[in-house]
């Protein structure tokens, strides 16, 4: 177990040893850091400093590693790519108290990153919780952004209909739910990602919980599983407060912690966006469905909408290079 550290403000946190991040597949980029409320917020900054800026934001329960295929392809195209880790995830510090986390705090942390790097003319790539957190930046400082790429996410508003899958996800993270009871003692987040990425079945997941039986993975899948577990290596239950808090911040369950009113305001503000906007959607996602993605895209006359029928919720991992190619083709259109 890593040693519990404390900020000058008295916030207790854990810091993942850098050794946990050695040898990650397709992601050998060194981290940089800013300080937010006494905590380190990690990011990678790759590509030419004078290249067009791409900001890639992850959600739950991932980290910047999720965006590696998009990042590597865009860097080859001359982009400067910044991929950040939310506080509580990746290489960023991890406060151990669940109540430290809120969506507005995550929004403030990302705002601090954008301002510290003075990013301008940003092309934003966002998905899952990275959507509300980064689209808040667009709503509040649209002058910093040039183009949006929105993937399998949402912004809360009164008319939004939450799917059964998302309601089950919330229930599974409550104290008596599958993940609330078993993460990380019996079930690591890396093994959950193996189901989401198609490397094993939900039944395999239940087998891990019930009998400690782990399915055999290919060497490639095993390396990816380890990469998603790396941020929490040796941190125990205390180190999982960030992932635990996100599902319990869904606005239908926790309006205050989930910034329900603010999200509705950001959703309305985004309707005034007139610059390029591209929706790239995993059509096999039952959390944020294709129908919802198409309806959202339909609010923007300038929007493009591309659906990958065989892609699920974490399409950056499974279809990252295709996302980059689709974006580059759309960018080149008149």
UniProtKB/TrEMBL annotation:
GO terms for molecular function: hydrolase activity. Residues 55-319 form the AB hydrolase-1 domain. Keywords: Hydrolase. Transmembrane segments: none annotated. This is Alpha/beta fold hydrolase.
